[in-house]
Amino acid sequence: MIKAGIIGGAGYTAGELVRILTYHPDVELDFVFSTSRPGTPVAGVHQDLIGEIDLLFSGEINTEVDVVFLCLGHGNSIKFLAENTFSANTKIVDLSTDYRMDGNHDFVYGLPEFKKDAIKKANFIANPGCFATAISLAILPLAKAKKVEGEWHVNAVTGATGAGVSLSATTHFTWRDNNFSAYKTFEHQHLNEIGQSLQWLQPELDMTVNFIPNRGNFSRGIHATAYTKFAGSLEEAKAIYEEQYKDAAFTFVTEENIHLKQVVNTNKCLLKLEKFGDKLLITSVIDNLLKGASGQAVQNMNLMFGLPESSGLHLKASYF
């Protein structure tokens, strides 16, 4: 059995990891570390787990676990790893932004549909951001095929859980309910990793991604639409995407209209392609906490340990 630890156990992504790993056939959850709640029941915070686990939050770290997931606020993973040393055999999956950009570190960007071989060999994974996952899966096949001709225009909506568990003025129920707003227009932090991936795949073209992120009045999920100029036919575009994702465990190209209820509470990404004149439109939907965070983190862990990619991730959407 793979022994796993979670650092930063009280947040949404940690809660999803606890749920997945508790029932993963090849994993034993060794500890859930929290500086704010040591000695208290994990199910006291993640209350859907009452009656399912007896684990307490730990104030100590087992540095000999096989894999550790970092569910810390952005900027804190670097600090944590500077202050805590794990065994040479411990694999690390970081869910923050700290190691996503290429630089002087050993972390592999963990987008399985495009980095599977590198992930299998990696000891350290930088898990992609939620918006970055939904958008990258929508636009990268065209870049890999060297078919992007110009700017991308992207509009995406995320649920309230995308802002994390800490309260702010824009996460209160009275603000979110019956409301909708844009934020961080053209400068969202996930643009950097999306741009980096595009440059990996089509470096000869300087591609601008015009991204408008929005807050929706629902709890979880991301609905993204992306369009760009494309000289080919819709059939040619579909062939590119179907070839890219033919062996993908969780990413599917469909002819059906897509919406969030098809993917919420799953590790799926659904994509639909449409052609309007000289423009190709791709719609992408994911669950921001699963395919956009914890589910993808476990998908990466499975690849790192040579397990089936979907092990422990046979999650079903709640349609009603």
Automatic annotation (TrEMBL):
Pathway: Amino-acid biosynthesis; L-arginine biosynthesis; N(2)-acetyl-L-ornithine from L-glutamate: step 3/4. This is N-acetyl-gamma-glutamyl-phosphate reductase. NCBIfam families: argC (TIGR01850). Its EC number is 1.2.1.38. GO terms for molecular function: N-acetyl-gamma-glutamyl-phosphate reductase activity; NAD binding; NADP+ binding. The gene is argC. InterPro entries: AGPR, AGPR_AS, AGPR_dimerisation_dom, AGPR_type-1, NAD(P)-bd_dom_sf, Semialdehyde_DH_NAD-bd. It is found in: Cytoplasm. PROSITE patterns: ARGC. The keyword Oxidoreductase applies. Keywords: Amino-acid biosynthesis, Arginine biosynthesis, Cytoplasm, NADP, Oxidoreductase. The keyword Cytoplasm applies. GO terms for biological process: L-arginine biosynthetic process. The active site is at residue 130.
